[in-house]
Structures
1.
Amino acid sequence: MAQTALVTSKGRFLFTSESVNEGHPDKLCDQVSDAILDACLAEDPNSKVACETCTKTGMVMIFGEISTNANVDYEKIIRETCRDIGYDDESKGLDYKTMKVVVAIEDQSPDIAQAVHLNKKIEEIGAGDQGHMFGYACDETPELMPLSHSLATSLGKRLTDVRKTGILPYIRPDGKTQVTVEYDNTIGEPVPVRVHTIVISTQHAPEVDNEQLRRDIIEHVIKPVVPERYLDANTIYHLNPSGRFVIGGPHGDAGLTGRKIIIDTYGGWGAHGGGAFSGKDSTKVDRSAAYAARWAAKSLVANGFCKRCLVQVSYSIGVAAPLSLFVDSYGTCASGYTDDQLLRIIVENFDFRPGVIQRDLRLKEPLFKELAVYGHFGRCPEKYAWEKPMDLSHCKKPEAGELLNPEFHWQASGREYPSLTALAPEVGACCVSTGAPLCSFFTGIGDS
């Protein structure tokens, strides 16, 4: 295809996000690391965990530093995690029953412990390391996530669903998805118009030909996930474009914790400080502060102060108070508001000290393994506190204009729902005002 075909009409642009399935080697490692973290937190909420995982043919290894009073059978957790993903035979790329398991875990450094948390009150707990973290939200979808990312994530989740439910039994655990969305930017903010390209590569049994796989993927994966209004005669499909994907999982590629940080967050939108999430307890601000920044950004958008928001926070190791806070609304503030005023709203309503984040977002609970695949954001707000926007109605200035309308109205099966909490996870649900799909909800992400 000529590159000139990638040039859209005036005022429009293409943006691409990708995702990977739970059987992808890197995601297998993320899930193992977070399964270890959950097991520690389940018995000892004060566990300090920094657990990395790597995998290659016939082998999974964990290594890092863990200080806990929990009695954890590391090997059992590793094997069970690989089993649950679907790696039960070497022909699929790994067999949980026969694979070699290596454990190389040591205690947390006492130097770090005394600097960060030892003998400290909640408000005094310091950051586990220096760094800068970002949170992002936009009004493209009801879960306030970018459409390109939500669609790529939902397609990946759907690939897993059709495999595990037997709809497409020849599908195997490894796989990747990618969605390019065409956006209209003529009014100064991106509005999703159509899906330009869908790429899906899925591991499969050797007896399946590519034509059957293509038909099945369109019928059972793409159509149930991508709203028809975004697909047209010019939408491009690359379905298993390599032609054959039998060798997969750790047999095909090595895997390592923390190599899918853009998939874990916003699909390339916003920004990323570089720190991974999985295998880290919440004293590690790479994780906890990123969740808090998402909470703040989502709250501003949900309350109508802006349509798109990026929040940055930074830390020094051992210091509780953040070093800096930054807010960018990309010029989408409600009338009468500025980014400086949005920053003040955040400062006056959100506490970014690590110990307080732990408490407010319930990060000492064992809730992380489920987050290790299909994204940490856009999840069920009743289960993950950073996804439940804070009520900021008290921050409205009497002299300012009306806030942007944050109240979405939903339609599913011909009915309308007044709010997200009233919506059952029905296939094909979308927002009446924007037509954006309820991606993470109708595919069941975060609701199990």
2.
Amino acid sequence: ISEALPFNIDDKLEINDNLRLKYRYLDLRRPKMQKNMNLRHQICMEIRNYLNNKDFLDIETPFLTKSTPEGARDYIVPSRVNPGKFYALPQSPQLFKQLLMIAGFERYYQIVRCFRDEDLRADRGPEFTQLDMEMSFIDREELFKLIEEMFVHLFKKLLNVKVKTPFLKIDYQEAISKYGTDKPDLRFGMEIIDLTEIFYKSSFRVFEEVIKNKGEICAIKVECDKEFSRKKLDYLQLFITSFGAKGLSYIKIKEGKDFQSSVAKFLSPEEIEKVKLKTKAKTGNIILIVADKKE
């Protein structure tokens, strides 16, 4: 009789990630993982078909190469025939694809592994697979069109989902000012709203000092204030100060013109109404405000 499995092969169970990785051969038997692997294969096949039909060549580039530092540290591999010397694993095929362009291969791609020795984050890992491509004699709009059409093809072919084109485009400054990042998730919805002009003549000393020092007063509107207990708001105070902010103010919008605020006694009714109008806040919303210098 065999021993009991460390976990049942069932998608309905929440399994610890470390346990899943320890028994990876069992984890890969789960229907969800089988489906993921199959979908990944189909994506790669459709990308190849799409690019082949656009006159691209799939060309492999070396893994064992010299160090060409990019955005991270290199992984190095000792050379057996040259003691004391090392190869570096490529962070990307950047130099090789540029050589291919010079050599007359005007459209290149490969689905390739890349290696970067850097701290782990949600979107960072030591090795990953990317679609790498390069084209000669094109402009930016041609590149956008090619990539958009590829995604439209993939979603329609594999998921039967129709993707609307052209894709929304925003510039760097707009992304930073509205979302605080250059790669915003637009589903998030809670844009950063600049309230500085509302408080130019404010008697609230904190806001007055920030504006005097050419800082900004910005806010995020949250749809439901019931999730923001006093305890949670106190935690948010500590959380944002750990990033260098001076503090957090809030305004909870109640029925009619009623409201609850941590800075109620410092703000005039006119300022509250202007904030509500600028943020399009409604009953049940909470407005979170931070005032500090602009970086």
3.
Amino acid sequence: MTEDVHPRVMLLGRTFEVRGTCTYTLELAESLPAAGFDVWTVCPNADRLDRSLHEPLHVHVVPYLDSPVIWRVVANGLVHDFAANPPDLVHVQSHAMAHVGVYLAEHWRRPYVVTLHDAPRARERLTLHPLWGRHVIAVSDWVRQTWAGAIEPAQVPCSVIHTGVVLPEFSTEGDLLDPGRRPVIGTAGALEPQKGVAYLLQAARIVLRQGHDVEFLIAGSGPEESSLWQLARSLGIQEHVSFAPELYTFDVAIRAMDIFCLPALRQGLGTVMLQAMATGRPVIATDVGGVSKIVQPGRTGWLVPPGDAQALADAMLSLLSDPAGARSMGAAARAYVAAHFSVGEMVQRTAEVYRRVLAESPTAVTY
């Protein structure tokens, strides 16, 4: 085979939203070609993805591929379309799409890799084909541990590869808590019950009642959006809370914040939090999941118990009362992400998994 022919990898993703799991897919799609792979991304919906990225990242939208009723019919169309020239490897981007990825790869008789971003639901299992299901990637040690015993066959290798984030060329921690403007405390992510944003709003009321003139920013969309609006009104803090649901990226929202909060009740890693840290923001996060191993209390931010609005408020007040300390934490957070969560390392280690899987595959081809 000629030297300019590269292994072809299909990234099978969920519906694109502005959330950490989709950031993971986009970073792989953008960076894997430089590592020697031809990559295209298949997903059910990309309406929330900036359309300027569709062509350069080879995004193929296949509607209803995630439908619980008709996904198999849609997948059969993909099986047929690529029957003559299937990908060399399928990388399923989340366990939510694992059933589709397994179906496609096994029909094409191609190896597949599955990435796990969160803990399994009650009684959930991941069953891989003993011949084609070759590798599992977990984004944190906590995620790997929660899936122990829930993956079949048990001997399938599982690597922990942290999601990498892009480090902005410049940070703005020097502008944090500027006395000439209102401080902004915020969060960003999917507005779902497990994200714990209701506790952030309850903490906001405590901070405001202590006389602090603070703005709170909630960036993201999801099923909890309406109820969170209502909660802000019922708490009487709506004049101090802004929602930003229609975003293609969280970058602008994060740069508008002085302090980033992740009040999640459970969290596999916290990719958006890492993006905030990379921008030089001190973070307040709940002591759950993979987050516990990232935030260094008193150095890069603070950890608080999940579901504890008072503890969240106390941490906010601590940072608000010490702007210099908050800026120092932001700088340390940025340095920590630069050292431990680079996109380059994530891509390199993922590419190593691909090469190993392809070399061991029954359909192995030397590239």
4.
Amino acid sequence: MCGHSVATPCLSVRLFSRSAQSNYDWFMEQLRGDTFKDLVKETKPFYISNSNRYEFMEEIHKCNFAVLYHTKHEGRINITNVTDSLYDEELKELFDALGKKNVIVLIDDLDSSGYGEKFQILETQPDMKNLAEDVFLFSEAEKKDPKLVEDKLQHIKFIMSSGD
């Protein structure tokens, strides 16, 4: 079974985003590191644009776990269910292809990443809680604290190892 100590790593993870890869290199490195080595066999980025829908659909079928990544450096948190949302269709497609258990959303570079912030985001953008297993918030300050990052990585690992 995927994720257990005697198993061969079995997850093919794609990180889907409209952001430049340099924004999420830190997370890709984590997925390729020791925390996930018994679970993740490959991790690849995929840049979402308005003109590569066909390639996006193909890429979904090359993975069995997806991370939808967004950074607040893009201006605001407009992932789904809001005016000018960036990922309405993509999140739905990931859910349809992989199921809720195999999709997470990562929102990066926030000022605050506490429960209150997460609750507020999910209240105004409910598709994230309906179409993804969980939403992970990372603040700039938090990423400088290895213990805080590791706690969230362990939660992500648990979700990855629990998927279908």
